[in-house]
Design goal:
This protein is mostly helical. The longest helix has 22 residues.
Length: about 80
């Protein structure tokens, strides 16, 4: 049985949900969800640096989703 996750990890994982997004954005976000949960479930990763890794992954996910909102790069 895996060790319980730190509350900060559990809190961050909720931001990786993607079911509520439209299909195009869901496809982008799903990949980050998978990686976030793989990192959180890895028994070799723990402590404050795991939370830092997830926060930075969340930033990357947000940027990727925004990029998918405007694939032509128009502002």
């Amino acid at each position: 049985m895996p060790a319980p996750q730190h509350p900060s990890v559990t809190s961050l994982l909720r931001y990786f949900t993607y079911e509520h997004l439209p299909p195009r954005l869901r496809d982008v976000s799903r990949r980050f969800h998978s990686l976030a949960h793989a990192l959180a479930d890895d028994e070799q990763l723990h402590g404050p640096e795991l939370a830092v890794a997830l926060r930075k992954l969340l930033e990357a996910k947000d940027a990727a989703v925004r990029a998918a909102l405007d694939p032509a790069g128009e502002e």
